Amino acid sequence: MKPISSFFRIFSVCIPGTCLVILCFLTSCASPAKTAETTAGNNHLLVVHLPFPDGTYTPIVREFERRTGIWVETDTAEHADLILGGDSFLLRSEPDRYERIIPFSASPIVIVYNPRLIQMTPPNGWLSLFDSMWTGRIAYENPADSAVSMAALCAMTQSLSAESVEDPDALAAYGLGANPTGIAASWFRQLDCKTVPDADSVITSVTDGSCYAGITSEARALTARRGGLDITIVYPVEGTSVHTSCTAIVKGCAHPDNARKFEEFLQTDDVQRYLPDRVGSRSPYAAAEYLTSAYDQSDNSMLLRSEPEDASSVPQEAKLRPLSKIPLLPNHEEWSAGQWKTLLSTWLTVSGEQNGDRTGRPVLSDHPANYKRAGDPEYISPEFLFNQGGVR
Question: Is-annotated flag, keyword Signal (predicted)?
Fold first, then answer.
């Protein structure tokens, strides 16, 4: 909203006979200044779309504003200069829309469970969740609304599909076929046709006992543990995926230079250290110490958090497990880019009656353009970023 002139506020209380004359005079005199003010303001503005506006990136946005003097506003995707936090394989499905796509954080997809409730037979992977003891007791977001859930569905179906599974008889024991769409349909039935409304509900459902297990990102699970919640994190033995959050500059946007400045800011050491230390996510390209070490930010100029008075009451999270120690699926992003729309279609088909025949797609943008075949608008790979030392 544009600021209202203080002169207008003062003179709007004048008697009717003089108000119009004064208002017209002020309007004619103020027009050039207003135009200059608008131009200056436009040069110090960045419009961002947050597919997942849960506050995760708010401290980073505020620090960017403080350092650069550029004001950040949020809006719908069709009016944004920059998408912040979109999943890489979803963004790359719209090659004609974005100038370039750059990953800035990564978080493996994990299973969580409540160790106070589950002690004898905890889950160890995707297949174990199809056991009857878990039916209807798994906290999982609708993949039509959550990129994390869609990434999890892709990881599950790839790891249990014919080209990946080592023991087809194990699938048959749970009544599963080895094709991705059949696995997706079986998964919906295993959930007892129920999903939780949002990402926070995955954690709360597990901790309050309404669900025995949940599927979420490692970053969100670590944040919950830092908050004192009693959950155990499991990296599926069959293999999992890394949910990569990216920025994407919209082609033809109003503030491309400011969008590039924000991209560069996300690649700074400050932000790349903040993400694993305080958000729980990982740098997708940086050196190994970013993935395995905790950081003391006492000498850091990045004022992104306030410390509690009694630091001893805050549980200290163990070092992040190195990605080399986590079973990751090979070629997963390429596999997902080619399969996720089919899996989503299957999900919407089997869930149609329960969800009022809704149609949709994982939250990425709210503009009406249809998704196209996966393409590659100058996708900046993590390896490229590492070799170049960041975005230039």
Answer: yes
